[in-house]
């Protein structure tokens, strides 16, 4: 595999990791909401949002890089 | 001018869950999804190891029922348990001076102010992190922080009313040989609960870091999105 494809693969693995963590926090938030533990639920909900935004930022950066390469 | 921040009082939370949570919240703060956030909680008994912990600091007796967790915070080993108020400020230091040493000094100041209403005159000791009583030196609160992308995790642990024996019998806490550890209750000469100390700790943090703290209500009704700070963010 060439270096560029390897870098792309690692980036998407990092995105997947962020989204998996987001999913974990979302499930934990749901459980705490069901248990009426509002602050703990909210903390996990915000944690999930943070991971989704991290994933989005990585994807946005990749999109910008793709556009740059396409124009080169 | 005070900046808006969230206050989360989470009760008793296992160390690993709280650590995972604060790292993820740090991501949310870093991304601007939420403002600075202060987490207050207690941990079930746990020994945590900082990045500078020596193996010799650990001397747990056989059968000691305590979890051991290696962490990414600065400092050496310490003990957490019920009766200790743990505070994890997740602050974006880009809004607070971009100075980690100053941040730690401010945490110490917040601790000193939190203990004062109980007649406990804590102070700093030159060359040592944390907050102490002197003559003889005895440690009241420990500090260990981690900063990534200028966002802080970990924080302080204030001994309110717990048996300090694990600090010396289970570990050589903070790597300090012959150090003594104390609590607010012991110094005040009366029972003191974490519930009594928490409002003073919150007020001190708000003053020192110039935060306008909004506590998320612990009952249903307000929901996640009704808070002014979040509404302001949503309007951006």
By DSSP (H or I, 4+ residues per run), the number of helices of chain B equals 6
What's the domain count of chain B?
1
Question: How would you sum up the global shape of chain A?
Answer: elongated
Series of secondary-structure elements of chain A, N-terminal to C-terminal: HH
Main sheet properties of chain A = none
Q: Judging from the principal axes of the Cα atoms, what is the shape of chain B?
A: globular
> Which two protein chains have the largest interface (Cβ within 8 Å of the partner's Cβ), and how many residues from each?
A-B, 20 and 24 residues
User: Mind telling me the C-alpha Rg of chain A?
Assistant: 16 Å
What is the CATH C level class of chain B, in words?
Alpha Beta
Number of domains of chain A: 1
Helicity level of chain B: 25-40%
Secondary-structure class of chain B: alpha/beta
Over the alpha carbons, how many angstroms does the gyration radius of chain B reach? Answer: 17 Å
Structural class of chain A: mainly alpha
Strand content of chain B: 25-35%
Number of helices of chain A: 2
- Helix-residue proportion of chain A: over 70%
Write the layout of secondary structure elements.
The complex is a heterodimer of chains A (72) and B (236).
Chain A: H1 3-34, H2 38-71
Chain B: E1 3-12, H1 15-30, E2 36-42, E3 46-49, E4 67-70, E5 78-80, E6 84-90, H2 100-115, E7 123-125, E8 128-133, E9 138-148, E10 151-159, H3 165-169, E11 180-181, H4 184-188, H5 194-209, E12 211-215, H6 228-234
Parallel strand pairs in B: 1-2, 1-12, 3-4, 9-11
Antiparallel strand pairs in B: 2-6, 3-5, 6-10, 7-8, 8-9, 9-10
Explain the overall architecture.
The complex is a heterodimer of chains A (72) and B (236). Chain A has helices spanning 3-34, 38-71. Chain A has 72 residues and is mostly helical. Chain A has one domain (3-71). In chain A, helix 1 (3-34) runs antiparallel to helix 2. Chain A is elongated and about 55 Å long. The relative contact order of chain A is 0.13. Chain B has a single domain (3-218), classed as Bira Bifunctional Protein, Domain 2 (BirA Bifunctional Protein, domain 2), CATH 3.30.930.10. Helix content of chain B is 28%, strand content 30%. The two termini of chain B are 20 Å apart. With 236 residues, chain B is α/β, with parallel strands linked by helices. In chain B, strand 9 (138-148) and strand 10 form a beta hairpin. Chain B has six helices and twelve strands. Chain A binds chain B through residues 21, 25, 36-40, 42-51, 53-54, 57, and chain B through 8-11, 13, 21, 24-31, 33-34, 37, 39, 216-220, 224.
